[in-house]
Amino acid sequence: MINELSKKAPEYTDSAVKLLSELISFKSVMGEPRENMPYGKECADCLAFAAKTLSEDGFKVRNFDNHAITADFGEGEAELGILCHLDVVPTEGQEWHSDPFKAEVREGRVYGRGAIDDKGPAAAVITAMRMIRDSGIKLRRNFRLILGSNEENGSADMEYYTKKEKFPPMLFTPDGSFPVINIEKGMIRLGISGSYTSGNKALLSLKGGSVANAVPERAEAIVSGFEAEEIVEIFKDYELSGIILAVEKYDNHTVRIKAKGKGAHASTPEQGKNALTALITLLSKLPFDGDISEKLAALSGLYPYGDSEGKGIGVSCSDELSGALTLVLSLADCHDGKISFMTDCRFPVCRRSSDLIPVMTEKLTQAGLSGNASLVSEPHHADENSEMIKTLLSVYEDCTGKKGKCIAIGGGTYVHDTENGVAFGAEWSDENNMHGANEFIGIDELTKDIEIYCKAILRLCM
Q1: What is the pLDDT of residue 154?
Q2: Gap between the Cα atoms of 11 and 4, Å rounded
Q3: Rounded CA separation 210/124 (Å)
């Protein structure tokens, strides 16, 4: 019976694509808080749409003050929780081939912001719920879909939710990849601040990146006291692989320098080309007045272009369970003599944040800068021998014919700060442009997700 129902997923694909398209239409990037809209109007509107949809589908819906909503399949305490998020990262500075907030279906894919992270997976879970509802199958255990709206900016939504409700004892999120992610690296967001002096030859501004948890695809600087041709001549000996550079006259007295690389998620920075660290390397070669050249050279030494493992700042490490530490200089906003950067560090289970933060801050102090940790999360490790994990792995094997196994990632999925939660899908490869331009989910993959989540719910709750 379970196999027969889950195999009906293709009959529901069109409705899943329609639902996903509707979810994508909400620009649910974190915005300014409003009354009863803690993460901005678009995030609240997206939650409201999902709540209305699920309620009309016959599920019992609760709204937790627009931090999150829940939809229960049955009655009583939920024993299984499925956790998805409807907020997304910004698209500014990215080159999309279509409107990122208007789903476009082409070549067997659905393109749009959130298609893979995490609106597509949420649509797959909701569609699986509809399949089970339509079948008339009675579940022995209740399960609960939890939809949040602040995963991309620290998961304050779940902090609020868990003050009101406990997570069910079994919990998974389709906010990762298959087969099962049971280990997630720890995370440190470290802000860097300082000041610099200048004269006629000055750095007027340096900006790069749009979010803390991504390799910056673009960076831009405006300088004075130089001619564009002079800068091109200085830069000619410093070719950086994967970076496209543009130097142009900005106005009568200034020059704009733009660097374009390749965006990537901060957990897999080796897949990107960091435009910000590349531009810092080049700017450090310019003979500015004051001490900014010295500060930039120090930063370039601590965060050299091409270093994604924290070697420059002295925190490189790895272990067999979770792999190597990764480190990204992800944001910059320097102007008027003020220095401001943000870094994103993902560290393996063999380390604690207390091992790393003092090393980084000391190195920054030596460079005449200050470091301050704004977000700290220790590594997450769920027991791979739990019954839930064993069941999820068997579902994966049944649906794919491939061997199921637990894997570790660079942190963090939506269950990072839970006790025993794991990530179960929904990514099948790293080629979906998550957090980058032209993010997509394959329609065949979406169909397979529906099948897998339908079978997982049934196996865990019947």
Answers
A1: 85
A2: 12
A3: 28
One of 87, 104, 217, 344 is an active-site residue; which one?
A: 87
| pLDDT recorded at residue 412 | 77
Query: Is there a single domain that holds both residue 59 and residue 115?
Result: yes
Domain with 372, as residue range(s), is 187-377
Q: How far apart are CA 91 and CA 100, in angstroms?
A: 7
Indicate the DSSP class of residue 337. Answer: T
User: Given this model, what pLDDT does residue 93 score?
Assistant: 87
Q: Are residues 24 and 67 in the same domain?
A: yes
Whether 355 is catalytic is no
Q: Is 151 a catalytic residue?
A: yes
Query: CA-to-CA distance for 343 and 355, rounded, in angstroms?
Result: 17
- Tell me the C-alpha distance between 273 and 305, whole Å: 8
For 173, residues 6+ apart whose C-beta sits below 8 A from its C-beta are 82, 83, 84, 413, 414, 415, 421, 422, 423, 424
- State phi, psi for 169 to the nearest 5 degrees: -65, -30
Distance of CA 95 to the CA centre of its chain: 18
Rounded to two decimals, the pTM is 0.77
Q: State the Cα–Cα distance between residues 18 and 126, nearest whole angstrom.
A: 12
Looking at the structure, tell me whether residues 396 and 305 fall in a common domain: no
- Please check whether residues 339 and 273 belong to one and the same domain: yes
Which residues, listed in sequence order, are joined to residue 143 by a DSSP beta bridge? Answer: 80
Count of domains for the chain: 2
Single residue among 377, 396, 419 that ends a domain in this structure: 377
SS3 content of the chain, % helix, strand, coil (to 5): 30, 30, 40
CA distance 258 to 7: 51
Phi, psi (degrees; rounded to nearest 5) at 164? -100, -35
CA 177, CA 184: separation in Å to the nearest integer? 12
Token couple for 80 = 């299984």
Q: What is the pLDDT of residues 118-172, one digit of tens each?
A: 999 999 999 999 999 999 999 999 999 999 999 999 899 999 999 999 999 999 9
Encoding tokens for residue 117?
């992270």
The whole-number pLDDT of residue 4 equals: 86
SS3 338: strand
Give the phi and the psi of residue 344 in degrees, each rounded to 5: -125, 115
Do residue 334 and residue 426 come from a single domain? no
Least Cα distance to 53 among 147, 140, 136 occurs for 147
Cβ-based neighbour number of residue 87 at 10 Å: 28
Final residue of a structural domain among 377, 402, 425: 377
Residue 141 structure tokens:
């255990």
Residues of the chain with pLDDT under 70: none
Question: Exactly one of 151, 157, 175, 427 is catalytic; which is it?
Answer: 151
CB 423 within 8 A of CB 367: no
